[in-house]
Design a protein that fits this description.
Blueprint (H helix, E strand, L loop, with lengths): L3 E3 L5 E4 L2 H6 L5 H6 L2 E3 L5 E4 L5 E4 L5 E3 L14 E3 L5 E4 L2 H7 L1 E2 L1 H6 L2 E2 L6 E4 L5 E6 L4 E2 L19 H20 L9 E8 L8 E8 L4 E6 L9 H7 L3 H4 L5 H13 L3 E4 L2 H8 L6 H10 E3 H12 L8 H7 L11 H15 L7
Parallel strand pairs: 2-4, 8-11, 14-17, 17-18
Antiparallel strand pairs: 1-2, 3-6, 4-5, 7-8, 9-12, 10-13, 11-12, 14-15, 15-16
Helix pairs in contact: 5-11, 11-13
Length: about 350
């Protein structure tokens, strides 16, 4: 079985000798450089030089013209150096090397890369000693270390497992205290609402509105007849509201006075994933000051659930209302994804998150 190597991109390449590479017209970096070309993809094969470094071969079809400023070393004749492997590399400036993605071993080390390939170019330091350049694309990426302790490999948020767990414990304690606090809210003045829409964008229209208070009492539950949209087959599959169901329902303009009265008496207005609902319901207010007063009352149950999972249930990777209800073992009331069921579900999730939210 031939020797093989896995690249950082995930591609696997095989070792070939020079004669096999020549038969297939593979090009080394030196060959490409002489033709003022540079590779645009991964190496296609490799070989090992006598001193143990990697020599990569590239597909002649997957090349591009090198930037003209890299063709020659400024103010000097073209200079080359022959490596122990027999490869010939060119002298170039630090700037020109960086243009190609070539860096010194020291610079790559600071970037957390390990050299595996032989040098691809060189220059001279002020003391006339040789400074080699290596290709970042073919260097081996090293694991990053924890920014807190610097001793272990990063796990999450640039921290190792130990430091992450310590930080998480602090955030969990703060979060649990925040959720367990007594807020003294009046159930009658805390509203939960949900909308169903003709689509997923701001220009879509409202099809249903449900509002309940902190007791679970229905304050408003109505279908809404859209003015411009005649069909909504994609969202109809989700909420099951058909054009026939809303043909005799009020349009949004007819509901605006009552909606303003209801929201005006609320202290908090809570929805699950509030940004979409707010972007549609805000249009009941023409005055920007009224919109701002309404926005200040809004609370997002989804954001609070995400914070809870990050602090207490990192095993939960999604944060839909269904996920939240499953997390707290809450049963649906009514047909899931209808505005009624979503509103009642949001209320129960909020009360699971904030058990001491109300004064009664």
């Amino acid at each position: 079985m031939r020797n093989q190597m896995k690249l950082r991109s995930g591609a696997t390449i095989y070792q070939v000798d020079r004669s096999e590479a020549d038969k297939k017209n593979y090009l080394t970096r030196h060959s490409l450089s002489k033709m003022h070309l540079m590779p645009v993809g991964d190496p296609i094969a490799y070989d090992i030089s006598p001193d143990g470094q990697v020599i990569y071969y590239f597909d002649p079809v997957r090349v591009a013209e090198a930037p003209p400023e890299t063709w020659y070393f400024p103010n000097s004749k073209k200079e080359t150096m022959t490596l122990p492997s027999g490869s010939v590399i060119e002298r170039m400036s630090v700037k020109n090397a960086a243009t190609r993605g070539y860096y010194t071993a020291e610079r790559l080390g600071r970037m957390h890369y390990e050299i595996v390939e032989e040098p691809v170019a060189y220059t001279y330091k002020a003391d006339k000693s040789v400074l080699y350049f290596y290709d970042k694309k073919t260097a081996k990426r090293l694991p990053l270390m924890c920014v807190e302790c610097g001793k272990d490999i990063r796990y999450k948020k640039k921290l190792c497992v130990s430091c992450y767990e310590k930080e998480l414990a602090v955030r969990r304690e703060e979060g649990n205290a925040y959720r367990a606090a007594y807020y003294g809210m009046d159930r009658a003045k805390v509203l939960f609402f949900d909308l169903e829409l003709t689509g997923f964008y701001d220009h879509d229209e409202i099809l249903s509105i449900t509002i309940v208070d902190g007791f679970g009492n229905s304050i408003m539950d109505t279908l809404v007849r859209p003015v411009s949209t005649k069909s909504w087959k994609r969202t109809e599959q989700i909420h099951k509201i058909t054009p026939a169901m809303v043909k005799d329902s009020p349009v949004l303009d007819e509901l605006i006075p009552e909606l303003k009265r209801i929201f005006g008496g609320a202290e908090n207005i809570i929805a699950y994933g509030v940004s979409t609902d707010y972007s549609h319901i805000k249009h009941i207010y023409e005055d920007e000051a009224e919109r701002e007063d309404f926005r200040k009352k809004i609370r997002c149950c989804a954001n609070e659930f995400v914070r809870y999972t990050h602090e207490n249930r990192p095993d939960i990777s999604h944060a839909s209302l269904t996920d939240a209800m499953s997390c707290f073992e809450i049963e649906w009331e009514g047909m899931a994804h209808s505005s009624v069921a979503d509103t009642l579900g949001c209320r129960k999730v909020w009360e699971a998150l904030f058990p001491n939210y109300y004064c009664n």
